[in-house]
Write a structure and sequence with these properties.
The radius of gyration is 25 Å and the shape is globular. The protein is of the alpha+beta class and 422 residues long.
């Protein structure tokens, strides 16, 4: 291998090693690698299916009671590649340590960016929310456990990520818990992990958590009675054209939407959350997140409110119910994240957030343009690329280190935000 090739390998290996060591979020979400050709032909957008729901039908005689299947879907798309692009003159290539340090820094920035984007996605689109002034770390986390158990949203691995201030507030209490006793301190806090199985959560700390804008605003009201039902993809019988639907969203007409912003957590009227499995009404207000504001008189919310008592729904459609009743005209849309600029803590089920990995035919760069390409598959399935070449005119080496991915909140009802206040 040439000296230039060795430098490129050093950069990539150190970037990957650093990346792998700091994946608090990346290794705790689902990873999906689609067929590259299919993604190209679909414009780098595809629809993913989510969990089905089924009704419980009593009786011996099922005549006329057979149901169809509703397969809900939501989109996931590849974004732009995340790069580190460097050009250096040949006399800067003499010290291998120079490139070792750059590889480490590249990996640190790449994984920090991924962690930050995942956290922002949960803050902007997750629908679970609570605000607590408890001084007990266990009590703070167990509130999230209670909510997820009531909602019966997912049984997969659950993680909570605390911001630095919440970590400082709760760390001494959590360190005294049985989950950490007998473990070396260096192990207990390695890779930012505070504890495991704390009220059902693996708990980490992270400094990259975003803030959530909120505050006391004058609530708007709805301007129509609304009935929503679950919808799946359809196929046109004549043309064969497939039409996919984003199952998560509902457009709510309101008097005025200007005071609201994306990510705000709201309640609507007196809607109560319903357990997804057994349809038990929790007597707790259903929280929604503002996912978009398309105009001055409407908001888009996650999740779509499907009412258990909606007479317009079939037996199958009611199996997807997540609230007890329908929205009435004049229902208040109240903001529940009352802090103007709150530091967030986030929690999520592993299968609710997905990263989709993008791949390129890197060998074509070598064949058609003379570039050198090396790649490294990481433990979560993503690929990191390093493309490099040289220029004899100005005696420079260029390299481009990058990852390519997209993120989606497949199930906003299985992740959300917790705010600690004094």
């Amino acid at each position: 291998m040439s000296e230039t090739g060795k430098i490129a390998v050093v950069i990539l290996e150190n970037a990957v090693e650093t990346y792998e060591a700091q994946t608090q979020l990346a290794n705790r979400i689902s990873v999906f690698k689609p067929n590259s050709a299919e993604m190209q032909n679909a414009g780098n957008v595809m629809y993913r299916t989510v969990q089905q729901h089924a009704p419980v039908i009593e009786g011996w005689d099922m005549n006329g009671k057979f149901t169809d299947i509703i397969e809900e879907t939501c989109p996931i798309m590849l974004g732009e590649p995340v790069n580190d692009a460097v050009s250096q003159r040949v006399d800067d290539m003499r010290d291998m340590g120079f490139w070792t340090r750059r590889g480490i820094e590249s990996g640190r920035r790449q994984v920090s960016e991924l962690n930050k984007r995942i956290a922002q996605l949960v803050v902007d689109t997750g629908t679970l929310y609570y605000r607590s002034n408890t001084v007990s770390g266990y009590d703070f986390i167990s509130e999230a456990q209670t909510i997820k158990n009531e909602r019966q949203s997912s049984d997969s691995d659950w993680t909570m990520l605390l911001n630095d201030r919440s970590t400082q507030k709760y760390s001494s209490d959590l360190a005294g818990r049985q989950t950490l006793q007998g473990r070396p301190e260096s192990e207990a806090w390695a890779k930012g992990q505070i504890g495991s199985n704390v009220a059902g959560f693996d708990v980490f700390t992270g400094s990259f958590l975003p803030k959530l804008a909120g505050g006391a605003i004058t609530a708007t009201t709805t301007t129509a009675a609304l009935s929503f039902k679950p919808t799946g993809g359809t196929v046109d019988a004549a043309s064969g054209v497939v039409t996919n639907t984003d199952y998560r969203k509902a457009t709510i007409p309101v008097v005025a939407s200007a005071a609201y912003s994306v990510g705000m957590k709201v309640t609507i009227g007196d809607l109560k959350a319903v357990g997804l499995a057994d349809k038990t009404i929790t007597d707790q207000a259903m929280t929604f997140t503002i996912a978009a504001i398309p105009d001055s008189t409407s908001v888009v919310v996650y999740p779509k409110p499907i009412a258990l008592d909606d007479v317009a729904l079939s037996t199958l459609e009611k199996a997807y119910a997540n609230v007890d009743t329908t929205i009435a005209s004049g229902d208040a849309v109240n903001v529940v994240n009352l802090d103007a600029n709150a530091q967030t803590n986030i929690f999520w089920a592993k299968d609710s957030i997905e990263v989709i990995g993008g791949e390129i035919p890197a060998n074509l760069l070598q064949e058609f343009d003379g570039k050198k390409v090396i790649t490294k598959a990481m433990s979560n399935g993503q690929v990191m690329y390093c493309v490099y070449d040289g220029n004899i005119v100005d005696m420079t080496l260029r390299y481009r280190l990058f990852t390519w991915y997209g993120l989606a909140n497949l199930n906003p009802m299985a992740n959300g935000v917790a705010v600690s206040y004094s």
